[in-house]
Amino acid sequence: MKKLTKDDLQAIKQEELKKETANWIKVGLSTCGIAAGAQDIYDFLVEEVKKRNLGVSIQRCGCAGMCYAEPLIEVKVEGMPKVFYGKVNKETAMKIVEKHIGGKILVNDHIYDIRSSQ
Amino acid sequence: MQQKRILIKDTDLKKDRTRDFYTAFLTEIQDKKLEEKVQLVRVSDIGIYGKGLTVRVLPENFLYCDVETGDISRIVSESVVEGRPIEALLHKPDDKQLRLVLRNCGLVDPESIDDYIKHDGYQAIATILEKMTPEKVIEEMKISELRGRGGAGFPTWLKWKLTRAVEADQKYVICNGDEGDPGAYMDRSVLEGDPHSVIEGMMIAAYVIGATKGFFYIRAEYPLAIERVNRAVTQAHEYGLLGENILGSSFKLDIEIRLGAGAFVCGEETALISSVEGKRGYPRPRPPYPSVKGLWGKPTVINNVETLANIPLIMLKGGKWFSSIGTEKSKGSKVFALTGKVKNSGLIEVPMGTTLKEIVFEIGGGGIAGKKVKAVQTGGPSGGVIPEDFINAPVGYESLQKLGSIMGSGGMIVMNEDDCMVDIAKFYLRFCVDESCGKCAPCRIGGTQLLHLLEKISEGKGEIEDLDRLRRISRAMQKAALCGLGQTAPNPVLSTLRYFEDEYKAHIVEKKCPAGRCAGLFHFSIIEEKCKRCGLCFRNCPVQAVSGNRDQGYLIFEEKCINCGRCFEVCKFEAVSRG
């Protein structure tokens, strides 16, 4: 691959910004998350989203700091607040897929933070 | 009316009250026929503690604390229907955290260089290569007043300037990722969550001092961090961000990874250098400092992971911006691994000057199981304990040192009445004795002698003169040990002695361990009058030291008992005594 220049950096940035989707889920996949089972949740979400054709991109990220609440996932879908769900097991992940993404309602008892109100 | 969401959380964790409140709220919504437009949600954490029932109304984001059932109808009619805040109940939360080092952790995909570039990654080094001389960068770093985050707090700009000033045909930059303090994992999270920012920090350091070769030194116990850094370095090489003629300039840099084999002393810079060279990780006396004679005898800059992760941000936003955060002598923010007897353990980042109280109670949610916080341990085996009386102390290099501890690399362990201070000192001392490389006598012999004295005290065989012996050996180690490990190893002993001498005396004079940790100083027995003969202790004892049956009652045999405390914990009637 050719060497990058400063302009190329800008180009990559713009390209990446264009690729941004309105609907995404980030799964914290650092050691703390993985130890709590986040890899299974990641795989499960990828599978479910594909199966149901939901148009939500599943992404990985580092530790958001709330290690006590791992596995921690951040969910943003259009028309809903940006929410951190913690202590997510497969059952909760299913609820998030069905209720939060499908039914546009928040899931009880697993919200650890809300970063945007709409 | 647009879709509303109402979040409910009982910050005092009273389950029955939460249920009643939730039901009352739901009824109110149904009475007003708003079910279609309003969703009521129970949340697990709202970031506020000890403020009664809290209600948050979205999308307006009104936050109400200490709400009572009587307020529900008002909240529904005014805030939900009309969208007006109720001033009397309104609570304005101030976010105590400030994520600078952790800016990208939990945001970017650590395995994608493009995602890092999207979040302004490699912009700082690009700008520097385009229009800043190394002197200009040092100047900016001087304005920022950034100090090393590994614990010692040496000004980063000065380290760079000294290394730059030395003439040499080859210079090196090393990232110290040998994080070894028990309970600390700040660097691991940064390396795992945002490896590219550390690489960019290394690039800037290398450019400034004139190094063409860099090393990551990461402990082998961090396999995921190693994997992600490895991938990040490969990606940077592929993009030409490492190698020759970086970003069209004449600057070149190669980075390799070296693994630490599990020795704590290798976090000390001279021992780390030996280890990178492939030798045994022995420290050596300084001076000469690594800035003059470092790796393979060449001038070397060694910066901690967190220090390096700060640098791209400082260069993007300016030294002045950075120095506006924090206290007079400690600028910027600090990441802490908050662990121990605290509700919300995790990784937090706060501006310097935030008090321990704010960290433990407002971010950490306070102590667990309703027990009183007794002390906070900072700085790992090189640090000390800060008792609850001083919990209003602000975090910073000097402020914590004044209290006999250090800020260190960022481990913060909360302790409560179940923690015995002699036991804590013993734990850290044993760690240092295990990890001492054995090269110098003060550390090798002094550490072992301190540990023996502490063991003697915790077994109830201590004499009052032992306290002076502890102090004397500690002072000798501080003065005479070769490296930081030995010089700071007595800190946990000295600081527990300073604040909790009573506890030491209880062990020595009364032969008692107030916290019930030192196994030799208490035993368990069953109080017959309180015992309901349920048999829980009998079933839970791992060594069959409880004998008896449900008709005749139970007894604990001291000879068999290992003082694990299981019977004490499981008894629902407080019929097991510890003393």
From TrEMBL, chain A:
InterPro entries: Thioredoxin-like_sf (IPR036249). This is NADP oxidoreductase. It comes from Candidatus Danuiimicrobium aquiferis.
From TrEMBL, chain B:
PANTHER family: NADH-QUINONE OXIDOREDUCTASE SUBUNIT F (PTHR43578:SF3). Belongs to the complex I 51 kDa subunit family. Residues 522-551, 552-579 form the 4Fe-4S ferredoxin-type domain. This is NADH dehydrogenase. Keywords: 4Fe-4S, Iron, Iron-sulfur, Metal-binding. PROSITE patterns: 4FE4S_FER_1 (PS00198), 4FE4S_FER_2 (PS51379), COMPLEX1_51K_2 (PS00645). It comes from Candidatus Danuiimicrobium aquiferis. SUPFAM superfamilies: 4Fe-4S ferredoxins, Nqo1 FMN-binding domain-like, Nqo1 middle domain-like, Nqo1C-terminal domain-like, Thioredoxin-like. The keyword 4Fe-4S applies. It holds the Pfam family NADH_4Fe-4S. GO terms for molecular function: 4 iron, 4 sulfur cluster binding; FMN binding; metal ion binding; NADH dehydrogenase (ubiquinone) activity. InterPro entries: 4Fe4S_Fe-S-bd (IPR017896), 4Fe4S_Fe_S_CS (IPR017900), NADH-UbQ_OxRdtase_51kDa_CS (IPR001949), Nuo51_FMN-bd (IPR011538), Nuo51_FMN-bd_sf (IPR037225), Nuop51_4Fe4S-bd (IPR019575), Nuop51_4Fe4S-bd_sf (IPR037207), Thioredoxin-like_sf (IPR036249).
